[in-house]
Structures are given as structure tokens and as C-alpha cells.
Amino acid sequence: MSRPRIVIVGAGFAGYRTARTLSRLTRHQADITLLNPTDYFLYLPLLPQVAAGILEPRRVSVSLSGTLPHVRLVLGEADGIDLDGRTVHYTGPEGEEGTLSYDRLVLAAGSVNKLLPIPGVAEHAHGFRGLPEALYLRDHVTRQVELAAAADDRAECAARCTFVVVGAGYTGTEVAAHGAMYTDAQVRKHPMRTGMRPRWMLLDVAPRVMPEMDERLSRTAERVLRQRGVDVRMGTSVKEATHDGVVLTDGTTVDTRTLVWCVGVRPDPLVESLGLPMEHGRLLVDPHLQVPGRPELFACGDVAAVPDLNQPGQYTPMTAQHAWRHGKVCAHNVVASFGRGQRRAYRHRDMGFVVDLGGAKAAANPLGVPMSGPAAGAVTRGYHLAAMPGNRVRVAADWLLDAVLPRQAVQLGLVRSWSVPLESSSPEVARVPGRPEGAGMTTTPGTQRSDTGPGGAQAGGTANAGAAKNQSASDPARSRPGGEPARNQPGGEPAKNQPGGEPAKNQPGGEGAERQPGGEPARNQPGGEPARNQPGGEPARNQPHGERAKKGPSGSPRASGKPRRAVEAAGPRPARGGSGRPGKAPRAAGEGSAGKRPTAPSGPSRSAGPPTDPGPEPPANQPPPGPDIAPGPVKRTDGRAAEGDS
Questions:
Q1: 233 within 8 A of 239, measured Cβ to Cβ
Q2: C-alpha 254, offset from chain centre
Q3: pLDDT in the model for residue 251
Q4: CA triple 133-137-140, angle to 5 deg
Q5: Residues in contact with 561: Cβ distance below 8 Å, sequence separation at least 6, in sequence order
């Protein structure tokens, strides 16, 4: 008899607990596969401390392969499920596609940022659901305080040191509390020239802070926030977000460069494509976490609407506590479906909540006992250490160091604004150079970002989003605010750090790539300074074997060191949003059509000038002319392998 195949989609609180419990219950008699975009389990409750510089990112990231040794880890994002064929289609981190067959499927895909139809929010705000967003917020807040401290203009200083957090729930409250402490510590060492101090605002339409929790916890949290100078405005939210600030529902205009969106979450859009009964966006399941009519399909965590047996007619809320307990019950019921053991119905007992407000301040009600102050802080951190599945010693060490040493307020610049769009199906995966668009994340077509404006404003605004995406070579993305164009856009800057060195900037229509294998290429071709000593101008300098810039099918020259990430298969691949399968990588800028690799005979290469005019003699330091070569990795002549060579 073949071993049963169990596939788990998602490694959040529910998916990770399911995989760990299944590995123990099956005693290695089943093939357990865990499909997740990242190779770690993220302990979300401590994410605000990463943004505030208390914990390092790896402290809240628990290795999946290290803690689940008997579970097969597949990196990728599920983008389609065939319920009748019992297969899961996924897209890997580098655009590769694959399918997983299963006998039992556990959906634990988690949740994504919840968006509201407010103009400008999707373009100018950033969420707080993943590690990349926390790293970006830490860098962004640090940068804004540094720029505000150096500014002479009071209006600019006030805008840069104003931080708006929308959503006074669990996450938003902790972000505002930790953020106020972080910026105050920065200004204490380097006071602002205008004499101002950072200002944090916490907005929500609810009548009180953390309305879903006990009222005594709410009062404690609001008191701590106001003591730290946080402007708490209940019954108020954002009406419109712009490049320079936000307009509130009470008519107030706030100049700011930072807008943090912590309004709430919604289930992963994957479950909507199944065509099964839903309850407020969540997949409807029975008390055994099984989908009615589909005995092979289970769901738990934020994507599952689990009946609350303690409160008939209601469903368990989307919290980490419930997701963690769902995982354990789901694993037992999956094993029971194979004839081992008895099924269990999910029934919970509320153990209370803890809210870390930074320093020695916290609010907690363990077992219904309200606490505040240092005692609540000790209970809160003790609970987190006990709940974490790993890294406990490292987390405790970071807390100890933070208590006796000052924080390091530096910006690393590892995550850019356009890497963490608010509207993403995978907030835990940053959009990075070299990643095909759609591999691990999706965004609204036409949305582009820069590192300016509140939370990284969109270049051009929403009205011109579609035009910006299809920008021509005459309008290079280099001219965008912040100098950081969107990736894989025609006329924009391709991804950096791809194999083969740094690719050409703004090609076609901009400056050629620097530090490519072979030296400095021709500058500003076409649309700028012509190449010297080429037919019609000056040749490219320091090209290998005197190679000139080559013309693509559209007539635009391109650098010879094309990144190896570019697709070289026959036939163009459709861009995301087209008729192709999701997760396909768009063609790199300047790639030949139909995958053909044009070549030319030895001698001067083709250019836009008349072919009969060979031009003046090349300079003395120019290498002897040689034949054109096809796009791809360039072999070095000094015996070393060039960047990008496999």
C-alpha cells in the first residue's frame, strides 16, 4: 500500500502547527509536503519589535527545515487548486511552475492586508503583515527622522517627523507605542534644528483603542500611548492619501511622509477561487475543520470560518491563538481520516490577551486577571517566549541587550518602497530585483512606487498608473521621484544584482549599464549622447573586443551582457495580467522577439547611423575590433569567471 500524501498550503501559525503535529502523529508513515513562499515560520506578535530595532529579523523567523526535519518543504506560492484532480499548482520563487498531488489537503494560507476604497491608500500606504514590511518601516522611519533633523524649514521638518498609523487594533497599537519610543530615542541623541519632536498619530473609526479586547486593556493601552505623546484620535480615519500627506474624515489635513496601514486583514484570495461555500471571505468548515462535501479537504487558520461551539451562531476570530489551536486539531483529524484515532471537534477556552507596549509597559489579562505596568510586561514577554517554537534564547538575549544598551538607529536600505506594495497576495515576500513578477506576489496592474511620499508615494498617482506601467522609451523611469523605477517596465530600470552584473539602466532610452562584464558600455543610447566612433557617433568605451551596442528588433541598441534571468526560450512569454498562466516572468527590457539571437558578421556592428560611414579611427586604448556576440553571459579573458557565469 502506498504512503498517503498530505499537502499543507501555508506555514503560518495554523500550517506550521499542523505540519509539526502531523509529523509526530504519522510517525514518518506519510509523505508530508509543506508549500510556503518562505523557508521560515514568522512569529507575528513580535514583528513591531523588529520595526522598533529591539529584535533582529532572524529572531522572529523560525527555520522550517530545521524544526520540521521529516516534512518536505517546497518553496512557492499556490495559485491554483484542482479539487477533482487533487493537485495543487504553484509558482516557485524564480518563476518556475510545478504541481503537487495529494490524498489530503490542508489549506492554511493565512491572510493579507485588508484594503478599503480610500483614494491614494494603495499607492501611498504600507502594511504590516510580513518581515519585509517591518524592515522597510524601520529604515523609512529612521531616514525621515534623520532628514527632519537636518532640515531648516519647519514645514518640511514637521511633515517628515509626523507618522500616521491607521487602525487601533492589536498591531496598530503596538506599532504606535514602539515607534514613539524609537523616534524619541533618536531625537534625544540628535535634537532637531527646528526644536520640534516626532509626532505619532493613531487613527481608528472605533470608539476606543483595541475594541475587540477587554475594556480595561483598552484603557491601559490608551493611557500609555498618551503618556508617550501619541495623538490618539478615535472615530477618525483617512479620507484620502496624497503624496504630501493625508486628509482625515473630520476635514483635517496632516502633512506626513509616512502612512502605516494596520486596519485589519482578510483571508488569502486563494480560497475565493475554489467555488466552495464562503462566510465573509473565509472557507466554511464544520467543527472538525473539514470542508462539507470534500472529505479530503481541510482548512484552518485565517482562511477558515470555524464554528464557535462556545458561542453558537458565531465563528472563531482571526487571531494567532485560534490559528495555533486549529493546527493541532486539524492534524489529529487528518490522521483520523486515514483510520487512526478519533476525530476531534474544535472547542477553545479563552486564555486572555497580552499587548507589549514597549519598555516595561504592557497590558495583559491572563486567565481574565487584568494587569498593567512591569508585572504585565513580565507576563507578556514570558508568554511570547513560551509560545515561540524556537529562538527563545536569542530573543531573550536581545531583550537583555536592549535594556542595557542604546539601540542602533541606522538604515540598511535592504528593502525599498516598491518592494512592499500594500496590495499583495504575499506580504511575507518582498518584490526583489530578478524575481519574475508574479512569483510569490501579485499587485494591482499599473501600480508603481517610489521611495518618496507617505510610505513611498506612487510616481504619477492613480490616474496615470496604467500609463506609467506602459511607459515608452522617451520617458525613462530614471526621472521618477526617488530615482527608483518599477521593475521590468519598458523604458525603466531592470532589476539589479541579477546574474551577469548590474543591468543597463533605463534601457532603451537611458544610461547604459555600468560595471557589466567587459567594462563601461555606451552611455545614453538611444535618446541621449550617441556612441563615439560608431557609425554616426562615438563608439562604446572598453567593450570586449571592440564590441558595439547591438540593435534589437525595435531598433534600440542593448548591452551585450544581458542578465541571464531574461527568458531565452523560443516565443515571447506573456506579461502578468495577460493571457498566460499566473507567475510567468515578463520579458526583460531589450530582449529579442521570439527568442531569436541576432548575430552580425565580423567588423563594425550595426547602429542607427548610415552603414556606409565607418566613422573616425577608434582611440588608442580601444581593444581591436571583433565580431558581435549573442546576448548572454560574457566570458572574461583574464581567466576569471565573470559575474553571471554559471
A1: no
A2: 27
A3: 92
A4: 135
A5: 500, 501, 503, 513, 516, 517, 518, 521, 633, 634, 642, 644
Please give the average per-residue pLDDT across 375-384, as a whole number: 93
Give the number of other Cβ atoms within 10 Å of residue 19's Cβ. Answer: 30
Q: Look at the alpha carbons of 29, 35, 40, 43 in this order and tell me if their dihedral is positive or negative.
A: negative
Helix axes 170-189, 131-150, angle to 10 degrees: 40
Considering only 24-38, 363-377, 586-600, which range has the smallest mean pLDDT?
A: 586-600
Instruction: Please state whether beta strands 162-166 and 258-261 pair in parallel, antiparallel, or not at all (unpaired).
Output: parallel
Which secondary-structure segment (H or E) carries 113? strand 111-113
Smallest Cα–Cα separation from 134: which of 63, 49, 256, 61?
A: 49
Q: Are strands 282-284 and 278-279 parallel, antiparallel or unpaired?
A: antiparallel
- What is the average per-residue pLDDT within 583-608? 39
Reported as half-sphere exposure (CB side, CA atoms, 13 A), residue 596 has a value of: 8
**Are the C-beta atoms of 243 and 452 separated by less than 8 Å?**
yes
Short-list 4, 34, 5, CA closest to 17: 34
pLDDT band, residue 432 (cuts 50/70/90): low
The predicted model gives 44-71 an average pLDDT of: 94
Angle at 547 between CA 546 and CA 549, to 5 degrees: 135
| Average pLDDT taken over every residue of the chain | 75
Total Cβ atoms within 10 A of residue 488: 23
Indicate the pTM of the whole model.
0.68
Q: E strands, 286-408, where? A: 297-299, 304-305, 354-356, 362-364, 371-372
Over residues 306-333, the mean pLDDT reads 93
Instruction: Using alpha carbons, list the distances in angstroms from residue 530 to 477, 504, 525, 535, 546.
Output: 20, 16, 6, 10, 16
Quote helix, strand, coil % in the chain, to nearest 5: 25, 15, 55
Residue-wise burial string across 450-466, b where 16 or more C-beta atoms lie within 10 A, e elsewhere: bbbbbbbbbbbbbeebe
pLDDT for the residue numbered 598: 41
* Grid cell listed for 10: 501555508
Pairs from 156-159 (Cβ < 8 Å, separation ≥ 24): 157/192, 157/193, 157/194, 157/196, 158/196, 158/199, 158/255, 159/244, 159/245, 159/255, 159/256, 159/257
For residues 462-474, average pLDDT? 37
Give the C-alpha separation, 34 to 49, whole Å: 28
Q: Which residues pair with 363 in a beta bridge?
A: 355, 372
Q: Is the separation of the CB atoms in 321 and 328 below 8 Å?
A: no
Decide if 161 contacts 194 (C-beta within 8 A): no
CB atoms within 10 A of CB 379: 18
